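User: Hey, my collaborator sent me this sequence without any context and asked if I could get a structure. I don't really work with proteins. Can you help?
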Amino acid sequence: MGGPSDALSAAVLPGIWGGLRPLDCERDARSLFADTHGTDIGQTWVEMKVGPFPTEADFVKHVAELVADPLRAFFAVVGPDDRAVGWLCLMEASAAHKAIELGYVLYAPSIQRTTLATEAFYLIMSHVFDTLGHQRLEWTCTAENARSRRAADRLGFTFEGVLRSKLILKGVTRDIAVYSLLATEWPDVKRAMRDWLDPSNFDGGVQRLPMATQRGAGHRGTAASAPGVRDAGNGEANSHL
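Assistant: No problem. I've predicted the 3D structure and written it out in structure-token form, which is a compact way to encode the shape of the chain:
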């Protein structure tokens, strides 16, 4: 995005299966370190810009720096018990252009492939379009991050292309895939996500209709067939940039 980023702040966003609230270092960092540095540590952090962290203290310091950044808003993803099991970040905001990016997504293994994982995205996307009034929401990830690209496609984003050799992450030059969702597209995506998240769509914990079916055939996502995709495993995406 062009121009300087605008200041951002997180908010409390309640949902059906859990919700979002401002990430709090003192309250959340230590439990998130435990949840994201277990046996699945490699899978959790493989496509992330930073991490994993060698010690809890290093992770706590990192989280403190994140929440202190006025140009990024970190939302803790919480279950009914209000325990943080991940985070989402809004950044690169431009009030002049009504555009913003959803990035640095961290989900603990326990939340991946759950209704809460999807609802967290629904809540922050609704916040972007319905509350903040943006007209463009951007999603970027490494071109090889199959999980993140599938998630973007499932959530209704449109693939726009690949920026070649865009970033050096952990010492490796990476191509970056770019996706977007527009305010004009949001009502249909919102309806599909809201219907999918309704408890009536689940029978014994199993979905009756997948979200892609409910959204219909008009969606233009291309993650599954886009070049450069390497399967990184199942589950919602940890990305990001």
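In plain terms: Residues 223-235 have pLDDT under 50 and may be disordered. You can pass these tokens on to your collaborator as they are.
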